[in-house]
Amino acid sequence: MMLEEYAGAIVLEIDGREVEVTDMDVQQATGRKLVKTMNRTGRAKGFMRGIETIELSISVVIPLNGDIDWAAIEGAKLTQYPISGTGGKRISYLDCFVTEVGEKYSVDNEAKRDLKLNALRKVVE
């Protein structure tokens, strides 16, 4: 049996600048919706196409010097790829803009910044 390698930790770049990320969550909504009609079968008969949305939630560490002005980010390119550098695919989120910025401090001596972004396009390279 051959040993398989799976995706693990990632590297995240914003406009070519590597960012120290601790958590990343991507939600892609297709925009499709169920269309309910009154008919003899009592079942829905199809769907309609809507607007696709891509929302990213990212947690980054807060550096003592050289922090990014996260609230000002508009039209950015976020690229995510496996940390191993071999295999795997690069995924880019284009025309990103930040909608929320928050800070979190914990007893474990970690200070993090939580970000919510939207992207207009997703490209698998």
Break the fold down into its secondary structure elements and pairings.
Layout: E1 10-14, E2 17-19, E3 21-29, E4 33-35, E5 46-48, E6 53-61, E7 74-82, E8 91-105, E9 111-119, E10 121-124
Antiparallel strand pairs: 1-2, 1-7, 3-6, 4-5, 6-9, 7-8, 8-9, 8-10
Account of the 3D structure:
The relative contact order is 0.25. This protein has a single domain (about 10-125), classed as Elongation Factor Tu (Ef-tu), domain 3 (Beta Barrel), CATH 2.40.30. About 0% of the residues lie in helices and about 55% in strands. The mean pLDDT is about 90. The protein contains no helices and 10 strands. With about 120 residues, the protein is mainly beta. The strands form 2 sheets. Strands 1, 2, 3, 6, 7, 8, 9 and 10 form an 8-stranded antiparallel sheet that branches. Strands 4-5 form a two-stranded antiparallel sheet. β8 and β9 (about 110-120) form a beta hairpin. It has strands spanning about 10-15, 15-20, 20-30, 35, 45-50, 55-60, 75-80, 90-105, 110-120, 120-125. This is Phage tail protein.
